[in-house]
C-alpha cells in the first residue's frame, strides 16, 4: 500500500508519471473522491483532504464494475477471458489472495483490451514486501535481515506456500496457458493483492474492512477482525490511502446504485493526509506484506521463537522424574499445544490464554497437573482457569524469564537510533518504511522498538501480578491503568474482592490508587 520509491529511481519516475493516468482513469470509470485528492509527497502516494472532513463523511465511492473482484462464495471460477479452463477444484480450495491474483492476472493477460488496463499500468512494478524481496534480492539476504526477529522461517514458509499454490494453479490450467502464470507474474499478483486487497462486507451492511485474512497463509499471521468478508477486491483510487490503526473506516454497498461507499470515522483538517485502518494488524503483518511499521501500535505482537522447544524444556526443568514429564507431555499433546507448526505470540494487552495454559502445564507439580487435567476434561470452558497460586507464580516467572532473554538478545539502541526514534515518534501518526536489503533503516529501528515494548510490558505485567498475588496469598490480576504504571502491591492487602472465573479483580476507587514511578 505504501508506494515507496526508495528502491529505484526508475520507480520514482513511474509513480510521478502514472498518477495523472490513474486519476483520469478513475474519473472515466465513475470513481469519485469526495473532498480528497491523491498526491505524491516524499516519494509516497496518499489521500489528502481538500477541505475539512468530519467523522461519518463518505470519502470515496467506487462503482462495482470499476473494481477487480473475486467472489469467495462461488464454487466455480468466473468466466475468464485469457485463463479459461481453470479447474473447479482449484478455485474451491484456493485462498482468497490466490483467487484475486488469478482474476488480476487474467486482466493483465488481456492487455489493452482490459477495461482495467490503465489502472494495472499504474500499479507498482516492484511491490516491496517479503515475498517480492525474496524473488528480487534473494532468500539469503532477506533471511539475514529477518533472522534477529525470528521472522526468517515465516518468510520461507510463506514463499513455499506461494510456490506450492502456483504449482497447483498451473496444473489446474490447460498447458497452453502456463506461460501466463510464471513464478514472477504470480508472485507479483499475489503481492499486489495481499497489500491492496479489501474485504467486501455482506451487501447492504456496514463493517470495518479487513485487508488480510489467514486463508492458507502461515499460521503466524492471525486474523483479528470480526467481520468475515465474502468477496475481496482491488479498489482503484481507494488503494492509494495509507494506514493508521487509530483511524476508523467503514464500507457500505449501495445495491440500488451498485456502488461501494467508504466512510471515515475520523476528523481530518484540510491539507492533512487521510488515513484508513487496515484492521488490527501487528507490525509483523505490516512489515511482511506492506513494508512499513507503525509506532504505538496497539495490535502489535511478538512471535515466540522455538515455542515448542521452550515449552518442552520448561516441562523437563519442572519435572522431578521421567514419569512426571511423560504425564505433562500427554496433557500438552492432548490439547494440541506442542504441534511443530503451532505459533504463539506475546500480545501488548494480555498474555494469550493458550500460551498461558501451555506454560501452566509445563511448570505444574504432580498435584497441580492432576487438577489441571481434571478441570480440562470435566469443564472444557474453564480450561484457562488458574489452578493455584504456586503454579501461577511459576508460570509468570517463566514468561518473565523468556521476555528478558528476548530483550537481552535484541540489544540496546545506538545514540543515532535513539535520535531517529525521537524524530519518528514526534509525527502523528508515526510510521516508518521497512527497506528490504537495508539493515538499520528507520522501519527496522521502529520495528525493534515496538517489539521490545511488547516484551517489556509483558514482563512488567506478570511481575506485577506476581507481586499482588504474593501479597494477598492467592491468584489475582488487576487491570493496568492506561498509563501502564504499576499499582503498589500493598494497596490490595485486606481489600474486598470479587471472584470471576477464579481470578480476583479488585474494584478500587480512582482516588485511592497510588502509582509507582
Automatic annotation (TrEMBL):
Domain of life: Eukaryota
SUPFAM superfamilies in UniProt: RuBisCo LSMT C-terminal, substrate-binding domain, SET domain
GO BP term (any one): methylation
PANTHER family xrefs: UNCHARACTERIZED PUTATIVE METHYLTRANSFERASE
Xref: InterPro entries: Rubisco_LSMT_subst-bd, Rubisco_LSMT_subst-bd_sf, SET_dom, SET_dom_sf, SETD3_SETD6_MTase
Protein's name in the database: SET domain-containing protein
Keywords for the protein's UniProt record, in alphabetical order: Methyltransferase, S-adenosyl-L-methionine, Transferase
Species per Swiss-Prot/TrEMBL record: Chondrus crispus
A family per Pfam: Rubis-subs-bind
Protein's UniProt keywords contain Metal-binding: no
GO molecular function terms attached to this record: protein-lysine N-methyltransferase activity
Residue ranges occupied by any SET domain in the UniProt entry: 29-279
Phylogenetic lineage: Eukaryota, Rhodophyta, Florideophyceae, Rhodymeniophycidae, Gigartinales
Listed CDD domains: SET_LSMT
Amino acid at each position: 500500500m505504501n508506494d515507496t520509491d526508495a528502491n529505484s529511481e526508475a520507480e520514482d519516475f513511474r509513480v510521478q508519471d502514472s498518477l495523472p493516468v490513474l486519476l483520469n482513469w478513475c474519473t472515466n470509470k465513475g470513481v469519485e473522491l469526495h473532498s480528497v485528492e491523491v498526491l505524491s509527497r516524499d516519494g509516497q502516494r496518499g489521500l489528502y483532504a481538500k477541505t475539512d472532513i468530519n467523522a461519518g463523511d463518505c470519502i470515496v465511492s467506487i462503482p462495482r464494475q470499476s473494481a477487480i473482484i473475486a467472489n469467495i462464495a462461488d464454487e466455480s471460477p468466473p468466466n475468464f477471458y485469457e485463463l479459461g479452463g481453470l479447474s473447479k477444484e482449484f478455485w474451491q480450495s484456493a485462498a482468497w489472495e490466490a483467487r484475486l491474483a488469478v482474476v488480476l492476472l487474467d486482466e493483465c493477460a488481456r492487455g489493452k483490451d482490459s477495461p482495467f488496463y490503465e489502472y494495472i499500468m499504474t500499479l507498482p512494478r516492484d511491490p516491496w514486501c517479503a515475498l517480492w524481496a525474496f524473488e528480487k534480492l534473494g532468500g539469503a539476504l532477506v533471511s539475514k535481515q529477518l533472522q534477529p526477529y525470528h521472522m526468517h522461517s515465516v518468510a520461507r514458509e510463506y514463499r513455499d506456500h506461494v510456490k506450492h499454490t502456483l504449482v497447483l494453479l498451473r496444473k489446474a490450467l490447460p498447458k497452453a496457458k502456463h506461460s501466463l502464470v510464471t513464478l514472477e507474474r504470480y508472485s507479483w499478483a499475489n503481492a499486489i493483492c495481499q497489500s491492496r486487497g479489501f474485504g467486501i462486507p455482506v451487501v447492504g451492511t456496514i463493517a470495518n474492512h479487513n485487508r488480510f485474512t489467514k486463508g492458507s497463509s502461515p499460521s503466524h499471521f492471525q486474523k483479528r477482525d470480526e467481520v468475515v468478508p465474502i468477496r475481496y477486491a482491488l479498489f482503484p483510487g481507494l488503494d492509494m490511502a495509507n494506514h493508521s490503526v487509530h483511524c476508523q473506516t467503514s464500507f457500505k454497498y449501495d445495491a440500488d446504485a451498485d456502488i461501494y461507499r467508504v466512510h471515515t470515522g475520523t476528523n481530518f483538517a484540510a491539507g492533512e493526509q487521510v488515513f484508513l485502518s487496515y484492521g488490527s494488524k501487528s507490525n509483523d503483518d505490516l512489515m511482511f506484506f506492506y513494508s512499513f511499521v507503525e509506532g504505538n501500535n496497539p495490535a502489535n505482537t511478538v512471535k515466540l521463537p522455538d515455542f515448542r522447544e521452550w515449552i518442552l524444556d520448561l516441562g523437563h526443568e519442572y519435572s522431578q522424574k521421567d514419569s512426571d514429564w511423560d504425564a505433562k507431555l500427554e496433557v500438552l499433546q492432548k490439547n494440541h499445544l506442542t504441534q511443530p507448526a503451532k505459533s504463539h505470540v506475546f500480545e501488548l494487552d494480555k498474555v494469550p490464554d493458550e500460551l498461558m495454559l501451555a506454560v501452566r502445564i509445563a511448570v505444574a507439580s504432580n498435584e497441580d497437573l492432576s487438577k489441571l487435567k481434571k478441570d480440562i476434561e470435566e469443564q472444557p470452558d474453564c480450561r484457562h482457569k488458574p489452578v493455584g497460586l504456586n503454579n501461577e507464580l511459576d508460570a509468570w516467572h517463566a514468561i518473565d524469564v523468556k521476555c528478558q532473554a528476548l530483550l537481552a538478545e535484541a540489544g540496546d539502541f545506538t545514540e543515532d537510533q535513539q535520535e531517529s526514534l525521537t524524530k519518528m515518534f514526534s509525527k502523528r501518526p508515526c510510521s516508518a518504511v521497512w527497506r528490504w536489503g537495508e539493515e538499520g533503516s528507520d522501519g527496522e529501528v521502529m520495528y525493534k522498538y515496538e517489539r521490545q515494548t511488547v516484551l517489556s510490558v509483558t514482563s512488567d505485567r506478570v511481575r506485577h501480578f506476581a507481586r499482588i498475588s504474593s501479597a494477598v496469598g492467592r491468584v489475582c490480576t488487576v487491570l493496568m491503568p492506561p498509563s501502564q504504571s504499576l499499582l503498589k502491591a500493598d494497596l490490595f492487602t485486606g481489600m474486598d474482592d470479587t471472584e470471576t472465573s477464579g481470578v480476583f479483580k479488585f474494584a478500587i476507587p480512582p482516588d485511592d490508587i497510588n502509582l509507582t514511578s
